[in-house]
Amino acid sequence: MTAAPPLTDRTALALHRRRAFRKRNTPLFLHQAALQDIRLRLADVQREFGRVAIVTGCPDFWKSAFPQAEICCDEEPIRFRQQEYDLVLHAMALHWSDDPVGQLIQCRRVLRPDGLLLCVFFGEDTLIELRTSLLQAEVEIVGGASPRVAPMTSLSDCGALLQRARFALPVADRVALSVSYPTIWTLMHDLRHMGESNALHSRRRVPSHRNLFAVAEENYRKQFTDNKGKLRATFDLMFLTGWAPAESQPQPLHPGSATRRLSDALNTVEQMFESDDR
Fold first, then answer.
1. What stretches of the chain adopt beta strand conformation (E)?
2. 138-142: which pairs have CB atoms within 8 A and are 24 or more residues apart?
3. Which pLDDT does position 251 carry in this prediction?
4. More confident call, 46 vs 254
5. What does the pLDDT read at residue 273?
């Protein structure tokens, strides 16, 4: 059996990030939105976290937000320096991973019992407008399409990721952000300056057709404009929360261990129904 090709060209991704983050005034508003939400979630936990690790491809931004944290690149495998952390943040990088379950497992293994994982990354509806417009344009011009946006995870799959990584008390939720752009070029400018340019391993390596983006913008305007005539772009932030298993955590009861009937709790009369099967 031949191994499946990787999702991400890690060399290209590293190049895009270096090019983006070496400039000042980089538009990191999506990281800022993710950070704001993470701070709210940590405030709800009401716990002091000692050792903190942050897995990210945008180290300077997250280091400034958590100066005492250890910053780890989202490479495969993740190179943690310590073996025990109270909190691991996986920040805006899991959508580029070839093995997201494996990365979450690595995070769980370095957490202390009852340590917390908070993960945020792009989800399934991210750039759905751009993806649709580019796909239509490529089919129209060249009769086919090449991969341009990384495949995104659905909310239902997010819960499965945490369960497969064996986190306790798993929770997955999403926050949808809508941003308006005057042109498709300003949208792609922001993506490039956030290090989110196309780094798919299977991307087409030849220059795009000269009319591709003009046709894509025309399609975009026909389908995805706001009430001011600007292009609407969706960014779907997925949040995963899980705890390293510990004996002190609430445990589910074993099947058949209930001491009361559901009908008693609901104050209803329990009825038996016969099956129509013969």
1. 52-56, 70-72, 85-91, 111-122, 168-181, 231-243
2. 138/209, 138/212, 140/215, 141/209, 141/211, 141/212, 141/215, 142/209
3. 66
4. 46
5. 59
Compare 91 and 147 and report the one with higher pLDDT.
Answer: 91
CB neighbour class for 225 (10 Å; exposed up to 12, middle 13-18, buried from 19): middle
Mutual angle of helices 100-109 and 155-164, in 10-degree steps: 50
User: CA 248 to CA 113: how far, in whole Å?
Assistant: 9
Query: How many Å apart are CA 127 and CA 123, to the nearest integer?
Result: 9
Mean pLDDT of 195-200: 90
- Those residues whose C-beta lies under 8 Å from the C-beta of residue 138, and which sit 6 or more positions away, are 144, 145, 146, 209, 212
| Cα dist from 212 to 86, 114, 141, whole Å | 48, 51, 7
In the chain, % helix, strand, coil (3-state, to 5) comes to: 35, 20, 40
What does DSSP say about strands 85-91 and 168-181: parallel, antiparallel, or unpaired? Answer: unpaired
Q: Picking from 119-123, 171-175, 211-215, which range would have the lowest pLDDT averaged per residue?
A: 211-215
pLDDT at position 113: 95
| pLDDT tier at 207, thresholds 50, 70, 90 | low
- Pick the closest to residue 233 from 224, 242, 241 (CA basis): 224
Asked if 110 and 82 touch (Cβ cutoff 8 Å), the reply is yes
Distance CA 204, CA 52 (A): 39
